[in-house]
Amino acid sequence: MSLTRRSLAVLPLAGLLPTHRVAASQAVNVYTTREPGLLQPVLQRFTAETGVAVNTVFLRQGVAERVEAEGAVSPADLVILADIGELADFTRRGLAQPMAQPATGVLPAGLRDAGDRWVALTMRARAILVSRERVRDQALTYEGLADPRWRGKLCIRSGQHPYNVALIAAHLEHHGEAKAVEWLTGMKSNLARKPAGGDREVARDIMGGLGDIGLSNTYYVGLMLSGRGGEQQQAWGQAVRVVLPSFTDGAGAHVNVSGAAIARHAPNAARARQLLAWLLQPEAQRQLAEANFEYPVRPGVEPHPLIAALGPLRLDQIALQKIAERRAEASLLVDRVALDR
Predict the structure, then answer these.
(1) Are residues 139 and 284 in the same domain?
(2) pTM score, two decimals?
(3) Considering only Cβ atoms within 10 Å of each terminal Cβ, which end of the chain, N or C, has fewer?
(4) 109-118, 204-213, 254-263: which range is least confident on average?
(5) Angle at Cα 124 formed by Cα 120 and Cα 130, nearest 5°?
(6) 191 by DSSP, 3-state: which?
(7) pLDDT at res. 4
(8) Which residues lie closer than 8 Å to 212 by C-beta, 6 or more apart?
(9) How many domains, in total, are found in the chain?
(10) Which structural domain, as residue segments, surrounds residue 295?
């Protein structure tokens, strides 16, 4: 039986997973697509330090749809989302309110919305992986992935995966459609295998000699090298060398982010702003980033040593909002050049 808009509006109160058993009206209510193991310890620490309870709804996807369906009676105060695409969609639907939060001013302009509707919390770079044994290059560019020297040696996950769509959108913003099509066509010619698997499988296939070069988010490197995924994955991570690349115009590395927005109808907006300001403090930033081997967004806070060892991260200066706006166009180009087929 289908649920009406009215019945959807009351579901979240039953679905809240409270850190403390406190009524939704007396706490701060968080909807999130971040994994519980990454976020819950940080929220528990916020409660321990401030006395403000956090009720949390963990969803794999569909936060914007849920908040939109709940309408003005939504209990959602703060949404914490896993990537810029989700943040952009949430704000595009008119579901966020201006943050009016001075704490967000500590971040670089590209890591917060120009309209004051979302802010980044952590980031990860789209890095190039190469074989330690077979590739000596120290400086590589994203555009260079289409160089014929890599013919039959490039390993990537699906071009339609959000991580790759975002990178393609960044290329579009830098170079325009014609150059992006040329780039993707060159990458397709260089493929060692059909795009598949995840970023860790890119490292696996490079170790196995199937390819020499590929793409991975930096946090997967941390997960592999730490041994968190087991000895086999640790060996994959040790077999590759990580290059933090740039576009050829020297713009810096492409990053994606997790981030937060205050819901338009937040019943506890003041507490949402309090939690947001706390999440941008140095110690919370360190804990958030280290939980998943990501980069803190607050300047001056160091990442986990395994990530710091990859070298200094210089950010692409194109605003993430502009990249998000070109994701649909990027996805169409993946199909146009049949990158995944």
Answers:
(1) no
(2) 0.90
(3) N
(4) 109-118
(5) 165
(6) strand
(7) 31
(8) 130, 131, 134, 135, 150, 153, 206
(9) 2
(10) 5-122+257-302
Q: What distances in angstroms separate CA 151 from CA 146, 191, 197, 267, 325, one per listed residue?
A: 8, 7, 20, 56, 31
CATH number at residue 27: 3.40.190.10
Q: Within this chain, do residues 109 and 155 fall inside the same structural domain, yes or no?
A: no
Burial of 250 (0-12, 13-18, 19+ CB in 10 A): exposed
Over residues 6-10, the mean pLDDT reads: 31
Residue 3 has pLDDT above 90, yes or no: no
Distance of alpha carbon 120 from alpha carbon 81, whole angstroms: 9
Task: Return the amino acid letter for 194.
Answer: K
The predicted structure's pLDDT at residue 251: 81
Mark whether 34 and 50 lie in a shared domain. yes
pLDDT tens digit sequence for 186-239: 999 999 999 999 999 999 999 999 999 999 999 999 999 999 999 999 999 999
Beta strands in the chain (DSSP E): 17-18, 28-32, 54-58, 78-81, 119-131, 154-155, 213-217, 240-243, 255-262, 295-296
Crossing angle of helices 282-291 and 36-50, in 10° steps, is: 160
Let me know how many helices (H) and strands (E) the chain has, helices first. 15, 10
| C-alpha dihedral (60, 61, 65, 70), degrees to nearest 10 | 10
Please give the Cα distance from 256 to 340 (Å, whole number).
Answer: 22
Token pair in block for residue 258: 């997790």
**What is the tens place of the pLDDT at every residue in 277-292?**
999 999 999 999 999 9
Question: Could you tell me if 39 and 32 are in contact, meaning their C-beta atoms sit under 8 angstroms apart?
Answer: yes
Minimum mean pLDDT among 5-19, 98-112, 194-208: which range? 5-19
Same domain, 261 and 137: no
